[in-house]
Amino acid sequence: MPEELQIVDRLVQQIASGKYAAHHKLPSENVIADQYKVPRIVARKAYERLEEMGYIYKKQGKGSYVKDRHKQVELVLSGDVSFSRKMMEKGYDFQSKTVFCKEIKYNQKIFDFLETGQGDRVFKIGRLRFVDGQPIAIHISYVAKSVFYDIDTAGPAIASMFEYYHSRGYNEFCSKPSSLSVSFPTKSQRKLLDCSYLIPLLVLESGCVDKRSCTVLEYTRILYRSDCFSSYIIPTPSACKR
Question: Residue limits of the HTH gntR-type domain (predicted)?
Fold first, then answer.
């Protein structure tokens, strides 16, 4: 294992054990270099890696400090209440910004999920989620034009998909079976989420269905910055009767 990774591993253990509390100033690079008997450049690389992983932050000219991970957002992974509503009900300073709305090429998995044919047109609407001004998630909704005739023109202005569905007469929702996975961000995702390649993303794939008609409203793919959330709660989804 490279020397800087040994230092990273040890410091992560010390932070997790409580030796270094939130906002505690860490030893200087010189002290770390002396302690582990390595060149200062190795200590610097270790601190850079810890910052990329979301464990520490730096103050210009003052040193490195432990990031407060207890202020992270509690994440409830359910599909019957909008993400915006969950965040606002918990009192977070929440904002949402639409970053793209465009038609996709035929994708069998997505089209099958939406229960639509190859001749249909499907659009993906991407919204960037912010808490306290920090980007924490990319929410991508795939919607069929056969269900929402104006999605191509209305999409760029949609801040909340649930509000859009309400405006189109769909008022009660349930979730399709969800799947969770972990991936590392691509270059474009890192740019949107303002994170490094070392921050894992929690990927939730699910869908929203109208309870009354059982119409599939959307296929959803949400990318959450794992360092921004303290816990993941997955309620049992309500089922739609067909």
Answer: 1-69
